[in-house]
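Researcher: Let's do a round of design. I'm pasting the structure tokens now; please hold your answer until I've finished.
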């Protein structure tokens, strides 16, 4: 039987089977490599459990890799909903990394600016996002305090897709989920009670079916770092779409756009067409990717 992984607790997974039932599942072997969003083939074990026999081919996989380890976020994701809030302040660095991570995995990024009801700090947040708007990344301004409005804005975008709510802690990812999938709240609370955390913060990635439309929404724990060491130079550059028209002018086909003579990107940078801040971000991510492994 086939199914889709809806959540993972260490080595254990919950799999929603094609007949609509949900089973606790496990996978044999040392390194599991199964993650939320995966389509799997399972063998039923008794009437409660299932064993994952095979992970079916992935359309894509969003993951990060730092110096010490790599971590899978989710598989088979159509779009990344990067949630930033008016308050607390979001990190430009993490936002840019999320965009690079998405594009390199062929996932479309959309920025959700949440908590626009906090009008005092709203103008500053909007201003900080203008650079991403110029890149052509959709930015949708929302507040979970207005549930009807939020649904009107988001549901059409979520139709027929698997979307991943992604971002730093306290940006409001789970609050958005709870508006769109009211029954999710019970699940989350149950889990934090069981763990005795008693906090709102999300500790596991989980996939939910949207009740009103066809589509899936994944909530994930807030992240504080997003290493991109697994990417090559051209993949990093994909996250900087404003470079592309100038890359064509580079003298060397394997130009890294850091120091080469005749580099179209550096020329555009000098002319103020490409933002210094963005180029610095590119350099930082690229140097991290090409740095030798540390032991
Ligand atoms: N004013 C305001 N507060 C909001 C809004 N959305 C969420 N919040 C509050 O922001 C806080 C954090 O919300 P969560 O939904 O738990 O944030 P999260 O992104 O899921 O956080 P993690 O699970 O830790 O990653 C909560 O206290 C929410 O009540 C909003 O639109 N406006
Ligand atoms: Mg959360
Ligand atoms: Zn160049």
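Researcher: That's everything. Go ahead.
Model: Designed sequence:
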């Amino acid at each position: 039987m086939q199914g889709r992984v809806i959540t993972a607790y260490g080595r254990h997974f919950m799999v929603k089977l094609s007949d609509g039932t949900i089973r606790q599942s496990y996978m044999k072997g040392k390194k599991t490599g199964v993650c939320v969003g995966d389509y799997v083939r399972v063998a039923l074990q008794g009437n409660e459990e299932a064993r994952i026999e095979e992970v079916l081919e992935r359309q894509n996989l969003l993951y990060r890799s730092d110096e010490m380890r790599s971590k899978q976020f989710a598989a088979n994701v159509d779009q990344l909903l990067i949630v930033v809030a008016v308050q607390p302040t979001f990190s430009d660095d993490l936002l840019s990394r999320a965009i690079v991570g998405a594009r390199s995995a062929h996932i479309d990024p959309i920025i959700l600016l949440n908590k626009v009801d906090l009008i005092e700090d709203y103008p500053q947040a909007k201003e900080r996002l203008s650079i991403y708007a110029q890149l052509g990344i959709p930015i949708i301004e929302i507040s979970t305090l207005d549930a009807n409005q939020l649904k009107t804005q988001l549901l059409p975008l979520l139709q027929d897709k698997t979307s991943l709510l992604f971002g730093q802690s306290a940006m409001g990812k789970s609050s958005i989920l709870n508006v769109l999938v009211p029954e999710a709240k019970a699940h989350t609370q149950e889990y934090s009670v069981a763990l005795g955390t008693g906090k709102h913060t999300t500790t596991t990635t989980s996939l939910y079916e949207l009740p009103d439309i066809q589509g899936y929404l994944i909530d994930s724990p807030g992240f504080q770092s997003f290493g991109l060491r697994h990417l090559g130079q051209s993949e990093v550059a994909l996250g900087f779409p404003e470079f592309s028209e100038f890359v064509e002018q580079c003298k060397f086909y394997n130009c890294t756009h850091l120091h080469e003579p005749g580099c179209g990107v550096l020329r555009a940078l000098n002319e103020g067409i490409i933002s210094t801040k963005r180029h610095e971000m590119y350099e930082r991510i690229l140097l991290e990717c090409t740095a030798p492994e540390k032991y």
